[in-house]
Specification:
Distance between the termini: 12 Å
Strand content: under 5%
Radius of gyration: 14 Å
Order of helices and strands: HHHH
Shape: elongated
Number of helices: 4
Structural class: mainly alpha
Number of strands: 0
Oligomer: single chain
Helix content: over 70%
Largest sheet: none
């Protein structure tokens, strides 16, 4: 997959939202032309998802439903990005 194909796949999956565009920028900035782009992207997304889920859990435990929902929405976007590159 070329960097352009990679970027287009991500744009189709999560483009058009502020957080989706942030993910696209991050993953394309770290695109590895040697063929390791998918593993690098998956690792970055796995870390991002784990962090977001941690914040979601923390906000929920503190009773801040709005903040927890915002984190859950980000998790959903990150998971869509992950599915697009697998």
């Amino acid at each position: 997959m070329t960097k352009e194909e990679f970027t287009n796949a991500l744009k189709a999956a999560v483009g058009g939202t502020e957080y989706g565009d942030e993910i696209i920028a991050d993953l394309t900035a770290h695109f590895d032309e040697t063929g390791k782009y998918a593993q690098t992207a998956k690792d970055r997304l796995d870390e991002r998802i784990a962090t977001l889920k941690g914040w979601e859990k923390k906000h929920a435990a503190e009773g801040n439903a709005d903040a927890a929902a915002a984190e859950a929405a980000k998790v959903a976007i990150a998971e869509k990005a992950l599915a697009a590159i697998e």
